[in-house]
Amino acid sequence: MADKNLKNEIEKRRTFAIISHPDAGKTTLTEKFLLYGGAINLAGSVKGKATARHAVSDWMEIEKERGISVTSSVLQFNYDGFCINILDTPGHQDFSEDTYRTLMAADSAVMVIDAAKGVEPQTRKLFKVCAMRKIPIFTFMNKLDRDARDPFELLDDIENELGIPTCPMNWPIGSGKDFKGVFDRRSESVVVYSDTQKGTKEGNAEVISLADKDKLLSVLGQASFDKLMEDVELLDGAGSPFDQEEVDAGMLSPVFFGSALTNFGVEIFLQNFLKMTSAPLARKADIGIIDPVEGEFSAFVFKIQANMNKAHRDRIAFMRICSGKFNAGMEVLHVQGQKVMRLSQPQQMMASERHIVDEAYAGDIIGVFDPGIFSIGDTVCAPNTKFAFEGIPTFAPEHFARVRQIDTMKRKQFVKGITQIAQEGAIQIFHELNTGLEEIIVGVVGVLQFEVLKYRLENEYNVEIRMDTLPYEHIRWIANRDIDMDKLTGTSDMKKVTDLKDRPLLLFINSWSIGMTLERNEGLELEEFSRN
Ligand code: G4P
Q1: What 3-state DSSP class applies to 42?
Q2: Spatial separation of the C-alpha atoms in residues 324 and 51, rounded to whole Å
Q3: Does the chain have fewer CB atoms within 10 Å around its N or its C terminus?
């Protein structure tokens, strides 16, 4: 039996990611969360705004110093008896595979949507990954202080675009300059809007019961009052009823309306979210399910970050602890490397500061110094146990380029550099099948990764490269490995390649070719991502 303290520590943990399309308000909402946790004194100081939306050019400078993206990878703070870990999923220009992988470490997700815009492309992509893992997804409909779309329409948008039923937990009364507050369905009361709380956690919003019609009318005014009464009637038919089991299974998204900037509806959202979301979830391994409380220490690597300075072997491996307790200095087994070792310089992020951790629990994220031995998806566990967690899928890159070194004498450094960068998971590399060409095809999820690759090869490996963009947009891994690649017939635009792990796959320019190829090769099975 696990000791009581361990159980308490683990059960109070909530580890989640905030997903959104750029500018929907993820940073602002995170800042307000931290404010409630007392981790910062005044919202706005989590990370420089410039960092969140830095231009491509200054990205290099920022990354060179590295501090920022390392420290913003995960934030930990305490609130209301919970220990909260927020995983950062950059949704900006630096959108990359890292973003997807980070979601593998989360137990739930908060989806921030700009109420004037509804579901946007990046939201859709990130949602897909959450849906694949069936983790609970909570929606914060943001920016009600600005003119917003009709709330019924916004719910339809989520249901139609993302295919997940919604359950509105509260309901907005107007928007923009007519925003009067939200109606809380559980308590049947109206929380009156005021923006006096902006940037602080002080000040209580006025709450009026729905039954107190006179007061409501005087505060809201006739038009808003009438609209609210009408909406309350319609609400029962809108969305789905609340069902915790459906939420847990990622099949129903509770929706909250509010305004992160003016700090309205944020704390109510946080409180409800913490109650509805789960403590660290059990994870699947090759020996079965690993229980977070009963199991001994175990973790998996979901992200590897290399320093941008010339000592490029200085890497940090980010691990999500899945079970038990971690003590600094303890011996662990690196399963894939088959080595018992001590994790060196384990670090954790508390708000914006990095510090060395002495202990950490299931649900926490630690960053450890990686002498170049870890790969994405690796498992570490107590030496007396031995198992591997399910692999982290390789996500489909969306941009491709042919890359070659300019100086042919530098072939060796080029191959070494590009392979190491691919091992870190920043890019994916492919070789053309049977062509014997000395070229490498690079695939990335976000185009910024091309620049990162060029910069790093030049600065860390001293290799200048040439990059020619390729028109491929679709990639499919071949699920049936026994297929004879030479005999496979596709369309003229199709390219046969292998990845870093020698798995065969196909590149296509358009989705029509995928259908044609499937038609022409009976029994062929194609997958959009590949499990390690
Ligand atoms: P992101 O991390 O999702 O990209 O979004 P971020 O929080 O940086 O917010 C993007 C912009 O939207 C910011 O404005 C921010 O102030 C604004 N914003 C966020 N939440 C709300 C809200 O509830 N209401 C309103 N009206 N605006 C909101 P900006 O002008 O780009 O930056 P700044 O000059 O305000 O810092």
Answers
A1: coil
A2: 35
A3: N
Residues in the chain: 532
- Residue 141: both structure tokens together: 């409909």
Greatest alpha-carbon pair distance for the chain in Å reads 84
CATH superfamily of 288-381: Translation factors (2.40.30.10)
Residue having the nearest C-alpha atom to atom 17 of ligand 1: 25
Beta carbon of 113 within 6 Å of any ligand 1 atom: no
94 CB under 6 A from ligand 1? no
Residue range 54-81, pLDDT digits in tens: 333 333 343 444 333 333 467 888 899 9
Q: Each residue of 9-30: pLDDT tens digit?
A: 999 999 999 999 988 998 889 8
Q: Could you give the CA distance from residue 507 to residue 493 in angstroms, rounded to a whole number?
A: 8
Give the model's pLDDT for residue 176. Answer: 94
* Domains 12-276 and 399-527 belong to one CATH topology: no
**Which overall architecture, per CATH, does domain 399-527 show?**
2-Layer Sandwich (3.30)
Whose alpha carbon is nearest atom 11 of ligand 1?
23
According to CATH, the topology of domain 12-276 is Rossmann fold (3.40.50)
Closest CA to 521 of 531, 506, 510, 509: 506
The finding on whether 22 has its CB within 6 A of some atom of ligand 1 is yes
- Residue 45 Cα to ligand 1 midpoint, Å, equals 14
Tokens standing for 47?
């990370």
Which one, of 362, 277, 380, lies nearest residue 322 by Cα? 362
